[in-house]
Amino acid sequence: METIEYIVTEMHRPNGVCRGTVADLILDSQLIPPCGLIPPFRVVAAVCRLGGSANGMSPGCLWQPFELSEDDYCAAITRLESLNADDLKNRHRNPYISGEIKPDYSAPDTDNYLAWLESLVRRGLLPSRPFQSAKG
Hints:
The chain is 32% helix and 15% strand. With 136 residues, it is α+β, with helices and mostly antiparallel strands. The strands form two sheets. A four-stranded antiparallel β-sheet has the order 2-1-5-4. It has a two-stranded parallel ribbon with strand order 3-6. α1 crosses α3.
């Protein structure tokens, strides 16, 4: 996949224009929660079709909607799994991931990001809290 141009938004900082791979977009849009699990292909593909969200008072990320291929998703997984804590801290936006970055092989059959996050809560991988986002 070619590079993707996207904008990261912050409440108290100017927006930042970024260019990167699908892996970079996944990190900067904060799709990976602190537990380190990467959403399944169906979830990430649905989010890519949305074009992101400014998320109001929370950090956001905006891009031109696109169709994610399974090959590009697999390449992103390989890249994400290779990252260490220092790699994450040196990014434009630190995703604050504390767990090992790996795919969620036990994910429910959904393409909805919020339903996937709720499944992480039910599985004891995230604290219970309401998730309000336009990420799918």
